[in-house]
Sequence to fold (123 residues):
Amino acid sequence: MKASETGARGEAAVCRYLEQQGYTILARNYRIPGGELDAVAYRGAELCFVEVKTRRPGSLADGMASVSLRKRRLLIRAAQEFCMREEMNPDNWFIRFDVAAVEMQGGCVFSIDYLENAFTADS
Fold:
């Protein structure tokens, strides 16, 4: 399976997970020059920008740890652009940046570790 297919399956699994938790998915693979938001979801007044990292079990690269400072800055910029383009006033929302680490084995989701508030726009 190609890395892009693995990533897409991981993102789809995280979106299903969020929907099961009562979230509505606003966007998937939202792109701006220099960045992308894997998923944008909301529940009540919570607006969540979700970075999904999909790996094979036993991978040396930890999905959570792979969201570097540079990556966080790109995600924050993409979230700001999303709010501006979609006319969503950030003052009306509790904004979160979450990270989902998905392990896949044989093309199937093995596990999802979901970390709410993985980082803030101030970090």
The mean pLDDT is 89. The chain has one domain: 3-119. Residues 3-20 form the longest helix (18 residues).
